[in-house]
Amino acid sequence: MLIPHTELDPQTLDQLLNDYVTRDGTADGTYTTLEERKAQLLKSLEREEAFITFNHEYQQACLIPRQEAPAEALSEFESAKAKRVLEREEAAYEAKCKEGFDQLYQKMQDSETFPIPLGRTVQTHGVHVLQVEGKVSLLDLQEVLRKHSLGDYGLVSWGDKLKNLEAIAKKDYMLSRYEVRGHSLCVEMMTGHPQTMVRLPSDY
Question: Which residue range is the domain that position 172 belongs to?
Fold first, then answer.
């Protein structure tokens, strides 16, 4: 397993670099300072010319050049790196959407947009069964409808929350999701907002 150097805390990484350059010295016998050698090694890690791995025999982290890294480990490293890039992009997008949501929500609060009209409220058979079995109550259903009408969209992403706010004026599709007594309930408004439905995620 190859470990990204960015996942080590700075103190641990610095100690690893220090141990390595102190032990190995310089390859060609020329004099360089400890800090210069550490900087060179760090650049090698950044350029992925060298990697940090874990030696299970000695129970410690060590450094290996790229040519010594197993092909399977390199493939896993690249896949994990791509995943981290995607996660960072998604996190940045969500942060941007949250900022947009907060700004728009405040404007709509100031203009007394909430609560929005829900039209006719209905529930699917799956939700009805939960209610009959006593797993959710009428008050639970009323509460998720109330939250939806007030702009509290529960567990959906910030991107979807922002889309919900933008959909109010246009009466576009809206969807929120809540966890109620261990059950996931969705509140859905179709285009035109003629009615609001409480359903299970699995109903469609």
Answer: 114-203
